[in-house]
Design brief:
Helix 8 packs antiparallel against helix 9. The chain is elongated. It contains 34 helices and two strands. The protein has a two-stranded antiparallel ribbon. The N terminus and C terminus are likely disordered. It has 632 residues and is an all-alpha fold. 36% of the residues are buried. A hairpin with a 2-residue loop joins strand 1 and strand 2.
Length: 632
């Protein structure tokens, strides 16, 4: 007997049931019961009364009524707690496919998609055949769990049960294969779907599959095929996916055209979904002003819009603006989520705002924000960039299962703070694990550690290990680290040979690293060669000329110093002012050369003058050899 609480029935509901059952036969009253009563209540208490009546009267035994009650139970009880509905389901004698589909649908959207697979297997053992509504729910669970083998098994079952031609089933197969990493199979299923049967979901599933596999060019190619086909009409999901691909590839012109297509599409509204995508696209294409304009135009912004704009500022190295926008968001009463926190922590780390980063850390703990792995990795990066490697290591050791980003953040943190030995030791610990493999960024942090520690031999070993052991391809940043490593060790000939042997064209950063080394070691000939290469790549930038001038000055070649500076004046190339910042009491102060904009400028210069006089009054002035050094 079903053990569910019998809730007293109000006179109003008793009158409805009498009216519903009057004049109909037994079978007709069942259907009238489900249609007239189940569709006309607004709170869980009424549902409990209807359910209690169905049990007491015995009509719950009818498969149609019990399936309807099960379906409505998912809507009128806690959406994330299926204990009640699950109990109700297992009280149904011989549930029909409608009841099975109802519970498949609920679990496939819940936090427990694996239950969908288990219940599907149970349905087959009970002898209930699936229908075309069953497979989309079960395939959705496979997609969320990336179960490629199960997706293949279900694919075969769709052929067995004759539901493969159904467009909803095929759309679900495309998504399941894409989410499981088999995008080629997804494309094969998509191509087998007749053009006249494909709907907009079919196209969206294929575009999304290419996006998930980072094949952005192919995603845009499918989008172009959709526009060329003329039917169906792209919807908002289609355009948002295309914008995402444009942002990843930096295709600003195409992104603007898709934006225009948005504006001409019937029924288009600049909601948070479209607005956030446009912000992301413009930010990734380097048009942060246009991104901000889109942000300001969104009428009812939510946390996703705020996070997209904060992330755009952080990605554009506008860390001050990112932090200021976060403060504005808080004043507006918006509660931050894990994604927002990760973006703000990145900005704090790059800007050196340790006090603010600590406040955000405590803010997460006070407000119960989910400290997922992404947030904890952000905390490791923030504390490391701000110089507190001890706190970063404490968070790292608190991780139950650190991923490659956790290891990389901690290794890079040690490297940038000059703790090279700790970085190399941590990497050796990571190498002993079987479930974590280093990536290109890990090796970049490792080479930086060798660079700061002066470990030339170890740097060469790890650089070769990238390709020979881990089958990773070095990029321009890795080559730049090696040039810097050799240059710091005064191996300038080897550094120049290394550059000439590169399989890719050296960029300005590599040549600048060589020029820095020449300045430090006084190698004028190689410095002139490197400066010439930099001028070819950046003819209107002052960096190479300034560095070359410093090399000449170190060698007391004042005529060459004058010549370089005269050439800069003739070409109207001005030296960019240097910038520095310091955090005091949670507020970051920014200064440029000869800057007088700070409200405490007079006090600052007075203090600097006092320091200068104190140094000048010393027994040996600025020098250590009894002579005052020349200031440049």
């Amino acid at each position: 007997m079903l053990l569910l609480p019998f809730i007293s029935i109000s006179w109003r509901w008793r009158w409805r049931w009498r009216w519903a059952f009057r004049g109909w036969g037994y079978r007709q009253s069942y259907h009238n019961f489900s249609l007239s009563l189940l569709e006309n209540f607004s709170h869980p208490g009424a549902f409990n009364q209807i359910l209690s009546h169905a049990i007491a009267s015995g009509i719950f035994r009818d498969p149609f009524i019990s399936s309807k009650l099960l379906y409505y139970s998912f809507s009128h009880h806690h959406r994330h707690d299926f204990a009640f509905s699950r109990t109700l389901f297992f009280q149904i004698r011989n549930p029909n496919v409608f009841a099975w589909n109802a519970i498949f649908r609920a679990y496939s959207r819940s936090s427990f998609p694996a239950e969908t697979i288990a219940l599907y297997n149970l349905m087959l053992r009970n002898g209930t055949p699936p229908d075309n509504y069953t497979f989309p729910f079960v395939l959705k669970a496979c997609a969320r769990l990336s179960l490629l083998q199960k997706a293949r098994e279900l694919h075969s079952s769709t052929l067995k049960w004759g539901v493969f031609p159904d467009v909803f089933v095929q759309n679900a197969l495309i998504s399941a294969y894409s989410s499981s990493g088999a995008v080629e199979v997804s494309r094969a299923v998509f191509d087998m779907l007749p053009t006249l049967i494909r709907d907009v979901v079919s196209w969206n599933s294929m575009i999304s599959g290419y996006l998930q596999s980072h094949r952005y060019e192919l995603a845009l190619k499918v989008f172009g095929e959709l526009l060329g086909a003329g039917s169906p009409t792209p919807d908002q999901v289609t355009l948002v996916s295309a914008l995402s691909a444009c942002g990843r590839l930096g295709l600003l012109d195409l992104g603007k055209k898709i934006h225009g297509l948005f504006m001409t599409t019937s029924g288009f509204t600049l909601d948070v979904f479209a607005g956030s995508s446009l912000i992301d696209m413009y930010s990734k294409c380097g048009q942060i002003e246009d991104a901000r304009k889109m942000f300001d135009r969104i009428p009812d912004r939510n946390i996703v819009c705020w996070t997209s704009m904060i992330a755009g500022y952080a990605q554009s190295d506008l860390f001050k603006e990112a932090i200021e926008l976060f403060r504005e968001m808080q004043i507006g009463g918006f509660a931050a989520d894990a994604a927002t926190i990760a973006c703000v922590l990145s900005a704090c780390g790059h800007w050196g705002a340790l006090a603010l980063g600590r406040w955000i850390h405590s803010y997460c703990e006070r407000n119960g924000i989910e400290m997922d792995l992404k947030v904890r990795n952000g905390l490791i990066g923030m504390y490391s960039k701000c110089g507190d490697t001890q706190k970063a290591l404490e968070i790292f050791h608190g991780l139950t299962q650190p991923d490659i980003f956790s290891w990389t953040a901690m290794i890079s943190g040690f490297a940038m703070n000059g703790e090279s030995d700790k970085a190399l030791h941590l990497f050796s610990q990571m190498e002993m694990l079987t479930d974590v493999r280093p990536n290109e960024i890990t090796f970049l942090g490792l080479l930086c550690a060798c660079n700061h520690g002066g470990f030339v031999d170890k740097g060469l070993y790890y650089f070769n290990a990238m390709t020979q052991i881990y089958n990773l391809t070095p990029n321009i940043e890795h080559y730049g680290c090696m040039v810097d490593l050799l240059g710091r060790a005064n191996l300038l000939v080897e550094a120049e040979k290394f550059i000439r042997a590169l399989p890719i064209q050296p960029d300005v950063v590599i040549w600048r690293s060589l020029l820095f080394a020449c300045r430090n070691h006084g190698n004028i000939e190689t410095a002139e060669f490197a400066a010439k290469r930099i001028e070819e790549l950046e003819p209107r930038r002052c960096g190479a000329r300034v560095l070359l001038s410093n090399v000449y000055a170190s060698a007391l070649r004042w005529g060459d110093v004058k010549r370089v500076r005269k050439d800069m004046a003739i070409q109207r190339i001005k030296k960019q002012p240097g910038c520095s910042f310091i955090e005091i009491d949670g507020l970051v102060h920014e200064f440029f050369v000869a800057d007088c904009s700070h409200p405490e400028t007079d006090a600052i210069y007075e203090t600097l003058t006092g320091i200068y006089r104190a140094l000048q009054s010393g027994p040996k002035g600025f020098g250590t050899d009894g002579r005052r050094r020349r200031r440049r």
